[in-house]
Design goal:
about 725 residues, alpha/beta, eight-stranded mixed sheet, 30 helices, globular, binds (S)-3-Hydroxyhexanoyl-CoA
């Protein structure tokens, strides 16, 4: 761990995969520092890390244990004091990422150098906590209050160049990091100046008066963007303490606020989501040894909205794309949409013209199958029709190389039926992207009956490369996300037939935390799309099943939602660019008439009933998905809903939320609905069992993880 180069000691942290500061690292670092402090031959110290990154933070596992017990997280203070008080200059040498506790460690060093590609940040608030290792006190001292507030509230890491410009990093190292860091340490020794302690600085802190506008603006941002995450406001309070209190008192205040954040309910949920997203990549028969194809070239069939979005996602990740359609007009339309999307990113300052040119150059629009034999993955994104998809797959079978992964972007169709027209069903997989495909993080990876483990590994690798979370799901109708969405959607439609309004339902759901209300979602996705899916999945073939009565009528009236200017709501180009739902009296009349004709007694419906019927419908179907093996674990369902359906991450996903309410109470309410509202509310048997046994989905997942612990992820 410690190597000595002349009079410079290099202390290297080596704790794969991301050098988290767990207890072992803290102890080893403390004893290494004690040794170099005592070694008279050593005049300066470099702290660096082995492997792919500097230090990605405190051990989030330790924090999670604290969140579920007394709220007291790992104590990094003695270590940081040891670093900062060392009588020899200490230089942090940063590559990869310095995040959370990693950046806090670096800020306790006297100097920081970094390679150009490094990124530095305090992402704690996104985990529902605040920096608890003096980061709220040191960051404003180094970069000023405004920048510190922005970094901590957004949680977004900044590039090394930005960190250098704002004073967080002292030097950017070109070439070998250790050589550069050692040379930098020697320069500081040669200067002979006393080495600076961040805690002693106040030149960038300003006065409370000067900072008042920055704190007010930050509080407003926190209120607007993270109203349900207490850590956001607590973080601002902690930074304020840096301005108003001496360093040690500020640290004490940070400690109190940190414990408060760790004990909060959203913190448990957000930590759950962090680990759930990583667990999703673990599939029992996909091990580290499963050979995944490196994906550098992809062909996409269909240049429509989905195909174009997938092409952008791939091009953004540095993958070469062949984008195919059948007519020059379709291809032009598709490429125009891609160009327009990129132009909007430039306008918003998210991308430079040069970056866009580079990405566009990766996409080759074409009408034929030229160079298809070079693609590692082909993604079909044509219209949702089995006949059409089968025709495309029969062609792909002929023009791609044998090992190529043949993927279909479908939200409803049977993967095995599509695979059956090829000579290699084991190479076929579903990749269910969510619209807009270049933005949404979720990728449902649908495993057919024959899909081989290496194809699943390739799909998981591709998801990661695209910056998405891949969740492996079984080939059952609707997969996971849409299967659960329909009972939820129908329940909201029954609620309006019984007396609620679409506006009331959507207000209740968005207040509860959903990104959008169910009716607004239906209008956005298209009532024609939902109609087609209803036919495809045959939801109401059984006449004894209660059928929602209004959606079909709106469909027949050509009210497809946003794209036709009306659906459940009205849309006007003058209101929110045609995207803001406006309640429509015509729809309210239609609902009332339809309900009366059907003999439904209309009544006032409470917000509580709306919330429970909507969310519990989602949960009950989620339990069935789990019991059918539709998802590998309950937390995968949470990942699907948080990343693809606007479920609030701070509630942890539908299954985690159910655990927190208590499965017994959820079960009893669903059983009541069953008695009052009929057979669609029959409690899922697994829910009944867990409720009676007093168990949770979280415990069920933990047992499963233990049983399948041996093989590691892709
Ligand atoms: C903090 O620091 C609090 C402080 O203020 C102090 C309080 C007292 N700990 O994401 P990947 C695991 S809070 C434990 O797939 P990538 C992860 O679970 C922390 N484990 O890799 C996974 O395990 P497995 C603030 C961690 O290359 C494996 O590493 N820091 C931690 O795509 C690979 O992870 C953050 O929030 C951790 N800190 O991305 C940073 N980090 O293989 C969180 C990762 O068993 N981390 N693991 O499933 C990240 O953002 C990404 O992991 C990173 C690498 C960008 C670093």
């Amino acid at each position: 761990m410690v190597t000595v180069d002349g009079d410079i000691a290099v202390v290297q942290i080596d704790n794969p995969p991301v050098n988290a500061l767990d207890r072992g690292v803290r102890e080893a670092l403390a004893s290494a520092l004690a040794r170099v402090a005592a070694d008279a031959a050593v005049r300066a110290v470099v702290i660096a890390s082995a492997g792919r990154t500097f230090v990605a933070g405190a051990d989030i596992g330790e924090l999670e244990r604290a969140a579920w017990s007394d709220g007291v997280g790992p104590d990094l203070h003695p270590l940081l004091a040891q670093v900062e008080d060392l009588a020899k200059p200490v230089v942090a040498a940063i590559h990869g990422t310095a995040l959370g506790g990693g950046l806090e460690l670096a800020m306790a060093c006297h100097y920081r150098v970094a390679v150009e590609s490094a990124r530095l940040g305090l992402p704690e608030v996104t985990l529902g906590i605040i920096p608890g290792a003096e980061g709220t006190q040191r960051l404003p001292r180094l970069v000023g209050v405004e920048k510190a507030l922005d970094m901590g509230l957004s949680g977004r890491p900044i590039p090394a160049s930005d960190a250098h410009a704002s004073g967080l990093v002292d030097q950017i190292v070109e070439g070998d990091l250790l050589a550069g860091a050692t040379a930098f340490a020697r320069e500081q020794l040669a200067r002979g100046a006393p080495h600076p302690r961040t805690r002693d600085r106040s030149d960038k802190l300003g006065t409370p008066g000067q900072n008042a506008p920055a704190f007010a603006a930050a509080r407003e941002t926190a209120r607007k963007t993270k109203p349900h995450i207490p850590a956001a406001a607590l973080f601002i309070d902690a930074v304020e303490a840096a301005v108003t209190l001496p360093f040690d008192a500020g640290v004490r205040r940070e400690r109190e606020l940190s414990a408060e954040s760790v004990r909060s309910e959203p913190c448990k949920a957000l930590l759950h989501v962090f680990f759930a997203e990583r667990a999703a990549a673990k599939v029992p028969d996909v091990t580290r040894d499963t050979p995944a194809l490196p994906v550098n070239k992809v062909a996409i069939i269909g240049a429509g909205t989905m195909g174009g979005g997938i092409a952008m996602a791939c091009a953004n990740a540095g993958i070469t794309v062949h984008l195919v359609d059948t007519t020059p007009a379709a291809l032009d339309r598709g490429m125009d949409a891609v160009r327009r999307n990129y132009a909007a990113s430039v306008k918003r300052g998210r991308l430079t013209e040069a970056a866009v040119a580079e990405r566009l150059a990766r996409i080759t629009p074409q009408l034929d199958h030229k160079d298809f034999d070079e693609a590692e993955v082909v993604i079909e994104a044509v219209f949702e029709s089995m006949e059409l998809k089968q025709r495309v797959f029969a062609e792909l079978n002929a023009v791609t190389r044998p090992g190529c992964v043949l993927a279909t972007n479908t939200s409803t169709l049977d993967i095995d039926a599509i695979a059956s027209v090829t000579s290699r069903p084991e190479r076929v997989v579903g990749l269910h992207f969510f619209s807009p495909a270049n933005v949404m993080r979720l990728l449902e990876i649908v495993r057919g009956g024959a899909t081989s483990p290496d194809v699943v590994a390739t799909a998981l690798g591709l998801a990661k490369r695209l910056g998405k979370v891949g969740v492996v799901v079984r080939n059952l109708p609707g997969f996971v996300g849409n299967r659960m969405m329909f009972p939820y959607m129908y329940e909201t439609q029954f609620l309006v037939e019984e007396g609620a309004t679409p506006e009331q339902v959507d207000r209740v759901l968005t207040r509860w935390g959903m990104a959008m209300g169910m009716f607004a979602v239906d209008d956005m996705a298209g009532l024609d799309v939902a109609w087609r899916v209803r036919q495809e999945l045959g939801h109401f073939r059984d006449p004894s099943v209660r059928r929602p009565l209004v959606a079909d009528q709106l469909y027949a009236m050509g009210r497809y939602g946003q794209k036709t200017g009306s659906g459940w709501f009205r849309y006007s180009p003058d209101v929110g660019g045609g995207r803001t739902p406006i309640p429509d009296p015509e729809v309210l009349d239609l609902i009332a008439r339809t309900a009366t004709d059907a003999g439904i007694t209309r009544r006032e419906i409470s917000d509580e009933e709306i919330e429970q019927r909507a969310i519990y419908a989602l949960i009950n179907e989620g339990v069935r998905v789990l019991a059918d093996g539709g998802a590998l674990r309950a937390s995968d369902i949470d990942v699907v809903y948080v990343n693809g359906y606007g479920f609030p991450a701070w509630r942890g996903g539908p299954m985690f939320y159910a655990d927190r309410v208590g499965l017994r109470s959820i079960y009893e309410r669903i059983a009541e609905f069953h008695r009052e509202l009929g057979p669609r509310w029959e409690p899922a048997p697994l829910l009944a069992r867990l409720a009676h046994e007093g168990r949770t989905f979280r415990a069920l997942d933990a047992e499963l993880a233990e049983r399948t612990a041996a093989p590691a992820s892709a």
